[in-house]
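During the reporting period the student researcher (J.K.) took over the structure-prediction task from the postdoctoral fellow and processed the backlog of single-chain submissions. One of the processed entries is reproduced below for the supervisory committee.
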Amino acid sequence: YLQANKPDQAIASSRKAIAKLPKSLLGYQNLTQIYLQTNQPKEALAVLDEAAALPSPDLVFLLELGEAYRNYIAARPREFETVKPKVTSVLDAAAKLEPKGQNFIIRLAELWSFAGEYKRAAELYVKLLERFPNQSILRSRIVELFLRANDLKAAQAQLDALVRDRPTDPLAHYFLGAIAAEQKDWDKAVEFYEKAILLNEGAPQPFEPVYYDLAGVLITRDDPEDALKLLAKARAKFKPTFLLEFYTALAHSRSKDYATSVRHFTAAELIARRDEPERLTGLFFFQAGSTYERNKDFKQAENYFRQALKLAPDFAEALNYLGYMWAERGEHLTEAKTMIEKAVKQEPENAAFLDSMAWVLFRLNQPKEALDFQLKALKHQKEPDATLHDHLGDIYAALKQTDKAREQWEKAIAIEPSETIAKKLKAAAPGRP
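J.K. obtained the following structure tokens:
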């Protein structure tokens, strides 16, 4: 009926199937798919909820229902958080039935993983490994799940056993790299990730994620050129993906090649819109926006920051960055002040945010009010920052406290030479009119 473009008859037929076999999920699954294919997502979800409300379902029904919810989220990824409690309720019911068969346990574990309950998934696999100790592939999955659950101790214990069993297994070294990265031991992470790539060389299916994880570590370690060389190898091996373009964009940005970085951010966004829309998070738009700003494309930077804030209205870094960008340019000063105030409220001891607040007040011709925030910014700075001293010098100058202004500009130049600040010092030299 659906293939014949008769959706009403298709729906009615599925309803009859459900009436005849209410404890079989097949009718519910078919009806859900019909509603999804006819762009009726609310009705589709209601069908699954109807199935979930049935009394005393058996294990197979519950697992199939969990998988049906997973399929629904695959079609409607933005509804994950809304649907997740429904999934966990179904999985809790399935877990109470204590599945014994290996296939049932694996299905339940993978559904827990899908729901983001990685530790519960790992614990199921641990019990399975006790029954089948020679299946080292299970241990690899356990390590991965414990890592996702951020239970490094449990992951390390499984990983030690995995390395003993399979010392040349690239996955073992990949996981060791992941643990080192989580502990911010960047040199160790690089070592393990590089060994994983070496051991995987020539495999029928090269392990793609390690390239991007290693690239991320290299960028964090401030080795963007090595990251770009690695990503060039990945580009030769794999088709273009969001992660390939995204990490390439980050590496070029770290190298201060902002024009090239912007091109790769654009490529990453296009791929994500087509294949993985969930990748387009507030953080992605913030990173793209900051690169556009450094590339002096302020209109596009504003566009991306606004998209970031639309997805994450309380994103303090984005609020501060956009507010400061406007303050620097003397634009939208009232709105900039409101944004920076929100950021400062979240992190009242963040030196960058306090400096932004001082600077927008200065731009609003309120140097007296700006002074307090600038002094707080200097109090909370973690390392000497020339900009903070420069701004304080400008504020003192506006307050006609020239000696204090000169003192701050001299401190700024001592940290980072600047012709602009040198000109200010020259203009404010003692004895000049």
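The committee noted the following: The CA atoms of residues 22 and 51 lie 8 Å apart.
J.K. will present the remaining backlog at the next meeting.
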